[in-house]
């Protein structure tokens, strides 16, 4: 049996493009055999409230009708082709009231209409998932037969039984053995090490069911969530096929025979809500494990892809970065340059104040020369002076301390958006995960931007990625930018470590709080100081209101701020 894996890339709700892709793929000369498409191929994912909107429902139902009309006109004599694709199945009352929605797998044969052959059983509700809010779960494990082969059907989470679910669809498939193939249609979000996790589980499933496993995933960036593709076919022991990372792709082969791998399928669930996140600390749990070159390359590709996806889906052709002479903005500008296509433009603006050093300008200029980007200098000193004078005259009080620091940052935010409004350029945010965690940024100041590409990288990882880029593109980021101590330059001789902890220690502590849920007592046993724990935990909790107003973040880790991190602003502030 010929097996075709179609790794697709569509904008959510682009029904015209989805119809065109489906019909073109199924009319290719090499489209005989079993054609597999991702979970919710017919709509895109995640949908949030879209499936409840009448206009969406009407357009989606029209898509189904168009597919059925097209398919029914095809010659029934072509019995050698079968497509399996993900979509929604709506149930309405006789009066047209919406009763339920199911996340389903459709089959499509030439001369026939779409037919539901499987309903997703395990609906995830952890991290960024909220499927039980919208979908009704299936209750039966499904198989189908094609060309004399018996095929087990799973949809994404159905392969990932854990303590979060009541039953295991894979174990149910085992009762229907022997099988010739198990397929999993997925819309599986990306994070570091995700492919290894998928392949390991697929090989466990293959060993239990004694058959190859085909896994088909979508590609795209949706607000904050990355879909990496990397569809694959495993015979149990060997990786037979693997699709591209962050690219539309098509794979085909003849169905292989199963090979035993000796990897046992878990007898009991091995994860729960508190253990689903991959933890990236060193063995002593006091520092983040350094990123490997392979991980850095994957992160770089993810950030470039996400930036381009956001720009294309919002029709942006120009980018704008507020350059400070520091590491974060330098890395953002470099990544934006690497992402730039032929018809796009990139602009950097340096906005020095009273406390900006001449070194910051020199380094910014060196970086822009290396990247081939024009640097525009827009000083804020005189505007800052005017505001100070007007403030004193109005309130009979000097503008000083934090208020004076923040007004500088907000001036830069206002000016960079003045330029954005003037040129139609998209402002790229320059904050990192460490700053987000402790609120070390100014609301409506340096926290502005349409998209944060560093929002899931701790400060230490920002430096690691910059060093990797300099290895890949020798000397593109001036070495002194990487070497100089981080500073906001909002007061005389300011350094980040004056307000925070050294970043290696801070980032490890933050990872404990975010992903490990480590108790204060255990943090002290690991060697963290009680006063540091209290300080950082307090900053983290008090900064929730800033994170609520932050721009979308490119999610590249198991646990990130943004869509998958939901905490109330108004709550009791817990202390140790």
Tell me what the structure shows.
This protein has 576 residues and is of the alpha/beta class. It folds into 2 domains: 2-254, 4-Layer Sandwich (Nitrilase/N-carbamoyl-D-aminoacid amidohydrolase); 293-548, Rossmann fold (3-Layer(aba) Sandwich). Helices cover 36% and strands 18% of the residues. The strands form 4 sheets. The protein has a 6-stranded mixed sheet with strand order 5-4-3-2-1-14, with no helix packed on it. A 6-stranded mixed sheet has the order 6-7-8-9-12-13. A hairpin with a 2-residue loop joins β6 and β7. α1 packs parallel to α2 (54-72). The mean pLDDT is 93.
Blueprint (SSEs and pairs):
Blueprint: E1 2-7, H1 15-25, E2 33-36, H2 54-72, E3 81-92, E4 98-108, E5 115-119, E6 142-146, E7 149-155, H3 169-174, E8 181-186, H4 194-209, E9 213-217, E10 219-222, E11 225-228, E12 232-234, E13 239-242, E14 249-254, H5 293-313, E15 318-323, H6 327-339, E16 345-350, H7 358-371, E17 375-377, H8 381-395, H9 401-423, E18 426-429, H10 433-438, E19 451-452, H11 459-472, H12 479-483, H13 496-499, H14 503-516, H15 520-525, H16 530-542, H17 544-548
Parallel strand pairs: 1-2, 2-3, 7-8, 8-9, 15-16, 15-18, 16-17, 18-19
Antiparallel strand pairs: 1-14, 3-4, 4-5, 6-7, 9-12, 10-11, 12-13
């Amino acid at each position: 049996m010929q097996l075709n894996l179609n790794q697709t890339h569509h904008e959510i709700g682009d029904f015209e493009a989805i119809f065109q892709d489906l019909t073109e793929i199924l009319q290719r000369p090499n489209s005989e055999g079993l054609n597999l498409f991702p979970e919710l191929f017919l709509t895109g994912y995640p949908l949030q409230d879209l499936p409840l909107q009448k206009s969406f429902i009407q357009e989606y139902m029209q898509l189904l009708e168009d597919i059925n009309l097209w398919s029914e006109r095809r010659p029934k004599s072509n019995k050698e082709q079968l497509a399996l694709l993900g979509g929604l199945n709506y149930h309405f009352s006789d009066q047209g009231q919406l009763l339920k929605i199911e996340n389903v797998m459709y089959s499509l044969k030439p001369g026939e209409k779409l037919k539901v052959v499987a309903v997703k059983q395990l609906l995830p509700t952890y991290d960024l998932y909220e499927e039980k809010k919208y979908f009704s779960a299936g209750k039966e494990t499904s198989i189908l037969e094609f060309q004399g082969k018996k095929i087990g059907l799973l949809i994404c989470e159905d392969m990932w039984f854990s303590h979060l679910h009541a039953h295991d669809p894979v174990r149910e498939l085992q009762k229907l053995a022997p099988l010739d193939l198990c397929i999993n249609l997925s819309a599986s979000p990306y994070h570091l090490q995700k492919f290894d996790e998928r392949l390991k589980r697929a090989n466990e499933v293959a060993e239990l069911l004694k058959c190859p496993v085909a896994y088909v995933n979508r590609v795209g960036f949706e607000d904050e969530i990355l879909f990496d593709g990397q569809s694959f076919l495993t015979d149990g022991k060997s990786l037979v096929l693997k699709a591209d990372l962050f690219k539309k792709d098509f794979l085909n082969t003849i169905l292989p025979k199963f090979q035993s791998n000796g990897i046992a399928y878990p007898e009991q669930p091995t994860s729960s809500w508190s253990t689903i996140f991959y933890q990236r600390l060193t063995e002593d749990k006091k520092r983040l494990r350094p990123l490997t070159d392979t991980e850095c390359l994957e992160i770089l590709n993810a950030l470039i892809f996400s930036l381009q996806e956001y720009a294309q889906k919002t029709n942006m052709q120009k980018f704008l970065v507020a350059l400070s002479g520091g590491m974060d903005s330098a890395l953002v500008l470099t990544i934006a340059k690497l992402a730039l296509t032929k018809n796009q433009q990139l602009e950097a603006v340096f906005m020095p104040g009273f406390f900006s050093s001449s070194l910051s300008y020199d380094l910014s200029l060196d970086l822009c020369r290396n990247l081939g980007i024009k640097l525009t200098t827009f000083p804020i000193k005189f505007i800052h002076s005017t505001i100070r004078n007007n403030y004193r005259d109005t309130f009979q009080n000097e503008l000083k301390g934090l208020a004076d620091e923040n007004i500088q940052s907000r001036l830069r935010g206002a000016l960079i958006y003045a330029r954005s409004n003037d040129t139609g350029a998209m402002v790229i945010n320059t904050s990192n995960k460490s700053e987000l965690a402790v609120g070390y940024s100014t609301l409506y100041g340096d926290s502005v931007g349409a998209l944060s590409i560093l929002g899931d990288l701790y400060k230490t990882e920002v430096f690691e990625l910059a060093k990797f880029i300099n290895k890949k593109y020798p000397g593109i980021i001036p070495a002194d930018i990487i070497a100089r101590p981080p500073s906001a330059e909002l007061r005389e001789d300011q350094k980040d470590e004056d307000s925070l902890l050294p970043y290696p220690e801070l980032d490890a502590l933050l990872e404990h709080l975010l992903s490990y849920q480590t108790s204060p007592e255990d943090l002290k046993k690991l060697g963290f100081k009680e006063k540091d724990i209290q300080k950082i935990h307090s900053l983290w909790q008090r900064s929730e209101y800033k994170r609520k107003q932050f721009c979308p973040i490119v999610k590249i880790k198991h646990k990130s701020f943004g869509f998958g991190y939901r905490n109330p602003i108004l709550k009791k502030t817990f202390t140790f």
